[in-house]
Amino acid sequence: MKIGVAREIKPDEYRVALTPAGGRELVQRGHDVLVETGAGEGSSFSDDVYEAVGARVVTVDEVWETSELLLKVKEPIESEYRRLRDGLVLFTYLHIAADERLARALVDSGIAAVAYETVETDNGGLPLLAPMSEIAGRLAAQAGAYFLERPLGGRGLLLGGIAGVAPGKVVVIGGGMVGYNAAVIALGLGANVTILERSVDRMRHLEEILSGRVSLLMSSSLQIEESVAEADVVIGAVLIPGALAPKLITREMVGEMKDGSVLCDVAIDQGGCAETSRPTTHSDPVYVVDGVTHYCVANMPGAVPITSTKALTNVTLPYVEAIADHGLREAVARDRALARGVNVLEGKVTYEAVAEAHGFEYSPLDDVLPLAPV
What residues are labeled active site? Predict the structure, then answer.
């Protein structure tokens, strides 16, 4: 199969969808790997390195027009919509529940769009989202500490405090992969950390693995209201796979937060969990609402592309190999987790949460692509 690796052109996106090591694995399996020139530069992988492992470095037109399976990191932006076409399988982060124009472009093109973030195992695991969630959670805690500094518009508080001076308070809303990793880094910085979570079982697990070093509270609208008012840093870490994030932090709650406090909304890819959140970039990462600094960068792991690219290839490569070796139809028949990643196929929306978000008709994947066991 011809497998293309597109160069990311979204602002401040430095990741690439495949490392040279991953390219070599695919070449050794007999596949033709086409890498757009310059695709790996942001992650410190030169064209020469890809050519050395047997990949071909090609133009942007060739990678989009001749590939059968196209790998990206982020969703296509508007200038790339014209390149979407019937017969192409696109494998990338899509987050289309928060982007109706992209959803419409994918439907109209006839492309097969498979989203990393909705590949889901039978036990609810999100294997292709997990490493980026780990990274985003850790970066959120770092960003919160950084933007608390007075020259950057913050309260002027050292998050970890010092002997004789109390540390800052970090409130993490959501105790999943993002929330856990945010808590780990905030604890490492010496902060006082509270996690709000709805699952008692998850809270018991967090209590165990974090050795009781965080306060764990049942999440409710009242508890969120009380907790964010006391916080120096709030990290929004809620996720409903493939769906819009719930608006758990209202405008009124933001208005009650301390002047110079920081809100890091890691759910911004899915629309954000605060009513005051809107996407920002690494070049212009923050804005202020009611005295609260909002950090809502939509591609946080792009700030550390060497780490992110390697972590991403580690988890995506087995799925890429399955699609390349067997074709999409057989690959999803063999693996229901991968099947759940198919969001758009043959002009139909096959992921229910996306259809609900935009009012599209929902077409179950089994109806569009019968998945008889192989």
Answer: 95, 269
